[in-house]
Each structure stands twice: as structure tokens, then as C-alpha cells.
Amino acid sequence: xxxxxxxxxxxxxxxxxxxxxxxxxxxxxxxxxxxxxxxxxxxxxxxxxxxxxxxxxxxxxxxxxxxxxxxxxxxxxxxxxxxxxxxxxxxxxxxxxxxxxxxxxxxxxxxxxxxxxxxxxxxxxxxxxxxxxxxxxxxxx
Length: 141
Fold this sequence. Notes:
With 141 residues, the chain is an alpha/beta fold. It contains 5 helices and 5 strands, in the order βαβαβαβαβα. The chain has a domain at 5-96: Rossmann fold. The strands form 2 sheets. Strands 3-4-5 form a 3-stranded parallel sheet, covered by helices on one side. Helix 3 (50-59) packs parallel to helix 4.
């Protein structure tokens, strides 16, 4: 993967980020979405903007990687899924855990040297799953 360009509403942070990662700073979202060099976009914006951006990117023929939550409503989520399906692009929703208490604490421990030299770090997140069927009469496999 190669980071080609980036866009943000504010020119100064956009320029700074582009310089830090060695990419171009797009002057507009339309310009970025119209760039034939770009196959996919990553959406890392406030949650309230996800639905519109996902639909715009998919409609422009770009694969989409968006942070969780994909949208704030089921209706918007369905609209995004439909836009990606119609455009025949991949829509991937990622769940970052960077602000979870455990993640923040691990980052602090690593930064302070408390963990010494880290060779590998793995985390498994699980939760109880109900054995009750989701609808009356349904059977679980």
C-alpha cells in the first residue's frame, strides 16, 4: 500500500500531515476522489461525517476503510452498504481500541520503559455470547 494523498478541511494540519507521511495534500475532497491513482480511501473523521463520506467515496469507485462506528444510524449504514454494493467496492469497518483504558495503560507502560523491551504484544477481546436464538423458532448451528 502506498499513501498517495490526504485531505482534511483545515489546510495547515493537512499540509503538516502530508509532509510527515510523504504524501501530497489534496486541495479538495472532489479532487482526491477524482484522482485515478487512488484505489481506496481511509475515513478517519468525526462519526457524524462517516455516512456521507463513505457514500461519496464508494460512488467515486474507491474502496473504503472507515473507523467504527461506520454510521450513527441503521438507515445510514444501509445506505453506505448499498452505495458500496452498487459501486462494486469493498467497504471495511475497523474497530480501533486506542482509547480503551487497557490500551492507554499499555501505551503508558511501554513509553515509560516499565515493560522493558517488548518482543510481541497480542490482545484478545471476547465477550459472552448468548445461546438464545435471535428470533423465535430459530436454531443455532
